[in-house]
Design brief:
alpha+beta
């Protein structure tokens, strides 16, 4: 996916270009600083977010699919879990869950960094969003989600959603599994089918049934809960619950996919970059030693500039989403290009974040470039920008710093021979074709042992 964008940009001489995926309308991509600044500054009255292709995973009630005043109101209502003192309680959970995963790693073990980071990020979501601790219920939901997302996050399913319509695909899956979903919610069901197509229907229905049951439990006994689901369930509008069960289900799916898959992918790429830079790993250790307060307050990890630079370089070099889509509501001129209303315009995150006019040695991994550096919103936008910037960005940024900090304090890694990853499409995200294998080494040990 990165190579396609680079080739298209080269053909266009660095200017805007149009891409059209199978079953999808044309998308006009921009990446120059001037165009990006204009696009980031567009308002609700001028454009609306066009995230319809994601409906096959997260449903139409997701915040990603709301527009104008409704989007603004919902965003404001859903902001409290991601700001202020509540983030400190999440930090404690992030440390504990990361340490539980690290305790299973053994020196000399070859592992896939993608899978191990997904273990952590999924459990963080299940704990912080659903309030679920280790136990049979969490283990069951985790196993179902891992299998379901592995089946759905493929180029084939993503393109099928584009060709047949993402909302149509999701409605079909949910319709076929409606009886099973009701049974699961009531505690009555059997294992999923072994037939591939039917199995995906059963997996989604089982997940939805379990989520429905959790919402019911939360509505009936919200006392003492501080998870995000409890906050959403407790929100009121005109004296009634702010969100219906259907809306809650889609919001939960959004957080499961957005907070798990994308965060794990960035952590994987960050560790991939560090595998070849022992000098940076040593500098990170020195930085951490100078900040013992992080031991008492894990959220203080945000004070470590070089660690933040590693995260930002992973986000800059390997953005999980290559572009965002906006639909013009009126005829517009973007960086001198006249476009009619209704056209899809895409600020291209990947190309903008590797623009040599903005970034010195744009392809180089240089985390120190972020120390005392301020960037404009249109130069660095892995979480989007403006009114549509990812609501969970502060949560993800804190989690990535905490996980990297704990991992680097616990183990060293060696890259196996001939195992360099290649960026590849993973559903609507960009992943690594080999999951980034690594061999675990004790801290301070040489590669030979």
């Amino acid at each position: 996916p990165y190579g396609l964008l680079e080739e298209a940009s080269q053909r266009a001489g660095g200017g805007p270009f149009t891409l059209q995926l199978p079953g999808h309308e044309p998308m006009v991509h921009f990446s120059s600083p001037a165009a990006m600044e204009e696009l980031v500054g567009l308002r609700y009255e001028q454009v609306q977010r066009a995230a319809e292709p994601l409906q096959f995973l997260i449903g139409k009630h997701s915040l990603l699919h709301q527009h104008d005043a409704e989007h603004k109101e919902q965003r404001r209502g859903m902001s409290p879990p991601f700001v202020g003192e509540r983030m400190r309680s999440y930090a404690d959970d992030m440390v504990r869950i990361t340490d539980e995963e690290l305790a299973t790693w053994r020196p000399g073990e070859r592992l896939l960094l993608r899978d191990r980071m997904q273990n952590i990020t999924l459990r963080v979501i299940l704990r912080c969003v659903f309030g679920m601790d280790a136990g049979p219920e969490r283990d069951r939901l985790e196993a179902l989600l891992v299998e379901y997302l592995a089946g759905m996050m493929t180029p084939t399913v993503f393109l099928a959603g584009l060709v047949f319509g993402p909302d149509r695909v999701r409605k079909g899956l949910m319709g076929l599994g409606s009886a099973r979903r009701a049974a699961v919610s009531a505690g009555l069901e059997t294992g999923p089918s072994r037939l591939p197509g039917k199995r995906m229907v059963d997996l989604l229905a089982t997940i939805d049934g379990l989520l429905d049951a959790e919402v019911v439990r939360c509505r009936e006994a919200p006392e003492g809960r501080e998870d995000i689901l409890a906050l959403l369930v407790g929100m009121q509008k005109d004296g009634a619950p702010r969100y219906s069960d259907a809306e809650l289900n889609d919001h939960l799916h959004t957080m499961l996919v957005g907070g798990h898959e994308t965060t794990a992918g960035t952590l994987m790429w960050a560790l991939h970059l560090l595998l070849d830079r022992p000098d940076v790993v040593q500098a990170l250790a020195a930085e951490r030693a100078a900040h013992p307060e992080v031991d008492e307050d894990p959220s203080a990890v945000r004070r470590l500039p070089l660690l933040g630079g590693v995260v930002n370089e992973a986000l800059r070099l390997y953005p999980i989403g290559t572009a965002v889509s906006r639909r013009l509501k009126e005829d517009s001129t973007i960086a001198g290009v006249e476009l009619p209303a209704g056209v899809l315009v895409c600020p291209c995150i990947y190309l903008a974040q590797r623009d040599p006019d903005v970034w010195e040695e744009p392809a180089a991994f240089r985390p120190e470039r972020w120390i005392d550096r301020r960037v404009r919103p249109w130069q660095f936008l892995p979480f989007g920008a403006g009114a549509w910037r990812c609501l969970g960005a502060p949560f993800a940024e804190l989690e990535m710093r905490i996980v990297l900090d704990r991992v680097l304090q616990s183990a060293a890694f060696e890259r196996p021979p001939d195992s360099l990853p290649r960026a590849t499409l993973r559903g609507f995200t960009v992943g690594a074709d080999n999951g980034v294998p690594a061999v675990v080494r004790p801290l301070g040990a040489s590669p030979e042992g």
